[in-house]
């Protein structure tokens, strides 16, 4: 009887031990975060400013890394994440604060993003100044008015503002030329996915990707063969050297600095040729780096906000309080 009990005990013992070990391993796993983070969490931290959130720690040559893989050599310190500079021209209109709010809500989720907001105005407005002060983003607030003669339908918009952003970048980086950075032009009414920033961050010279809802089509995109841009899928002026919207490319800071004369021009520039005229000065089609899975994914949309109906705004019996909208 005793020996039967003993043999049963020894048969069960390894199983009991296995169950105990499994339970222990499971409880050692960290609890999942309350709010799920996007799958590309290294990029999903806020930047400097009021709403500062520390960057998630990247793999450092610490004790834990060594414990997990002792045969691996010590990790080299990673190079700093290139800063993304977003140049946004903006102008006063009823929807301005709403547009800027949407944009800031996106940008706040991108690590190392510096927002260069350029007002189309003779002076910095109080609305935008107050907005930026509370936005919780590293930013630079510039202004330059568009000359009256250029404020006509059919003429390119925001030429002067984009150039002011470029001038600021060049001046700011005059001394420290080796800082890694990427510039892109972020109009205030477009819609940007967070993945887009992940893609553009690795721009070496000039990178390109598809843009949704533009050119009279669901999307426009660079055509890619063997990793190179060989043409353009577009429904509008296919003869453009770079048949791409302003939202469809990014440029490395190095390229901006080494081409100090590259700017947007009004003289000789036909409508819709702003992008081509600018890109011609800094790159060639062969040199372009296709992003977004060889330009097969739409990560940015050229959305346009409907003009608001203010037909019932009172002229005389206005509200008793003054409210900024
Ligand atoms: N913009 C500007 N001044 C203007 C018109 C537009 O600064 O007089 C800005 C606008 O806020 C946006 C960019 O220029 O960031 C492009 O303008 P819009 O979105 O009207 O152009 P579209 O998308 O129609 O090409
Ligand atoms: Mn627009």
TrEMBL record:
<keyword id="KW-0333">Golgi apparatus</keyword>
<feature type="active site" description="Proton donor/acceptor">
    <location>
        <position position="275"/>
    </location>
</feature>
<feature type="site" description="Interaction with galactose moiety of substrate glycoprotein">
    <location>
        <position position="312"/>
    </location>
</feature>
<dbReference type="GO" id="GO:0000139">
    <property type="term" value="C:Golgi membrane"/>
</dbReference>
<dbReference type="InterPro" id="IPR029044">
    <property type="entry name" value="Nucleotide-diphossugar_trans"/>
</dbReference>
<feature type="binding site">
    <location>
        <position position="162"/>
    </location>
    <ligand>
        <name>UDP-alpha-D-glucuronate</name>
    </ligand>
</feature>
<keyword id="KW-0808">Transferase</keyword>
<dbReference type="GO" id="GO:0015018">
    <property type="term" value="F:galactosylgalactosylxylosylprotein 3-beta-glucuronosyltransferase activity"/>
</dbReference>
<comment type="pathway">
    <text>Protein modification; protein glycosylation.</text>
</comment>
<feature type="binding site">
    <location>
        <begin position="187"/>
        <end position="189"/>
    </location>
    <ligand>
        <name>UDP-alpha-D-glucuronate</name>
    </ligand>
</feature>
<dbReference type="Pfam" id="PF03360">
    <property type="entry name" value="Glyco_transf_43"/>
</dbReference>
<keyword id="KW-0325">Glycoprotein</keyword>
<keyword id="KW-0479">Metal-binding</keyword>
<feature type="region of interest" description="Disordered">
    <location>
        <begin position="35"/>
        <end position="82"/>
    </location>
</feature>
<protein>
    <recommendedName>
        <fullName>Galactosylgalactosylxylosylprotein 3-beta-glucuronosyltransferase</fullName>
        <ecNumber>2.4.1.135</ecNumber>
    </recommendedName>
</protein>
<feature type="binding site">
    <location>
        <position position="157"/>
    </location>
    <ligand>
        <name>UDP-alpha-D-glucuronate</name>
    </ligand>
</feature>
<keyword id="KW-0464">Manganese</keyword>
<feature type="glycosylation site" description="N-linked (GlcNAc...) asparagine">
    <location>
        <position position="294"/>
    </location>
</feature>
<keyword id="KW-1133">Transmembrane helix</keyword>
<feature type="binding site">
    <location>
        <begin position="302"/>
        <end position="304"/>
    </location>
    <ligand>
        <name>UDP-alpha-D-glucuronate</name>
    </ligand>
</feature>
<feature type="binding site">
    <location>
        <position position="189"/>
    </location>
    <ligand>
        <name>Mn(2+)</name>
    </ligand>
</feature>
<feature type="site" description="Interaction with galactose moiety of substrate glycoprotein">
    <location>
        <position position="220"/>
    </location>
</feature>
<feature type="binding site">
    <location>
        <begin position="89"/>
        <end position="91"/>
    </location>
    <ligand>
        <name>UDP-alpha-D-glucuronate</name>
    </ligand>
</feature>
<keyword id="KW-0812">Transmembrane</keyword>
<keyword id="KW-0735">Signal-anchor</keyword>
<keyword id="KW-0472">Membrane</keyword>
<dbReference type="GO" id="GO:0050650">
    <property type="term" value="P:chondroitin sulfate proteoglycan biosynthetic process"/>
</dbReference>
<comment type="similarity">
    <text>Belongs to the glycosyltransferase 43 family.</text>
</comment>
<feature type="compositionally biased region" description="Basic and acidic residues">
    <location>
        <begin position="63"/>
        <end position="77"/>
    </location>
</feature>
<feature type="binding site">
    <location>
        <position position="120"/>
    </location>
    <ligand>
        <name>UDP-alpha-D-glucuronate</name>
    </ligand>
</feature>
<feature type="transmembrane region" description="Helical">
    <location>
        <begin position="6"/>
        <end position="25"/>
    </location>
</feature>
<dbReference type="InterPro" id="IPR005027">
    <property type="entry name" value="Glyco_trans_43"/>
</dbReference>
<dbReference type="GO" id="GO:0046872">
    <property type="term" value="F:metal ion binding"/>
</dbReference>
<dbReference type="GO" id="GO:0005975">
    <property type="term" value="P:carbohydrate metabolic process"/>
</dbReference>
């Amino acid at each position: 009887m005793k020996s039967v009990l003993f043999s049963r005990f020894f048969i069960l013992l390894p199983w009991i031990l296995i169950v105990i070990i499994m339970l222990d391993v499971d409880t050692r796993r960290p609890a999942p975060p309350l709010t799920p983070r996007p799958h590309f969490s290294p990029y999903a931290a806020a930047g400097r400013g009021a709403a500062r959130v520390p960057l998630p720690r990247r793999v450092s040559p610490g004790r834990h890394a060594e414990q997990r893989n002792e045969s691996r050599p010590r990790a080299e310190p990673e190079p700093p994440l290139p800063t993304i500079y977003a140049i946004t021209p903006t102008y006063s209109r009823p929807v301005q604060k709403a547009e800027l709010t949407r944009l800031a809500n996106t940008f706040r989720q991108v690590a190392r993003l510096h927002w260069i907001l350029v007002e189309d105005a003779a002076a910095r407005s109080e609305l935008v100044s107050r907005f930026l002060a509370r936005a919780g983003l590293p930013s630079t607030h510039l202004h330059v008015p568009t000359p009256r003669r250029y404020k006509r339908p059919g003429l390119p918009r925001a030429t002067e503002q984009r150039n002011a952003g470029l001038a600021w970048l060049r001046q700011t980086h005059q001394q420290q030329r080796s800082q890694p950075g990427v510039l892109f032009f972020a109009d205030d009414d477009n819609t940007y996915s967070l993945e887009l920033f992940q893609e553009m961050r690795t721009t070496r010279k000039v990178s390109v990707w598809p843009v949704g809802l533009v050119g009279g089509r669901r999307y426009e995109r660079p055509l890619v063969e063997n990793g190179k841009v060989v043409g353009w899928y577009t429904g509008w002026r296919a003869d453009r050297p770079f048949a791409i919207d302003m939202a469809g490319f990014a440029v490395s800071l190095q390229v901006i600095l080494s081409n100090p004369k590259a700017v947007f021009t009004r003289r000789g520039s036909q409508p819709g040729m702003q992008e081509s005229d600018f890109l011609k000065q800094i790159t060639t089609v062969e040199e372009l780096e296709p992003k977004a899975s060889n330009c097969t994914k739409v990560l940015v949309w050229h959305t346009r906000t409907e003009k608001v109906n203010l037909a019932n705004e009172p002229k005389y019996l206005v509200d008793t309080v003054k409210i900024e909208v």
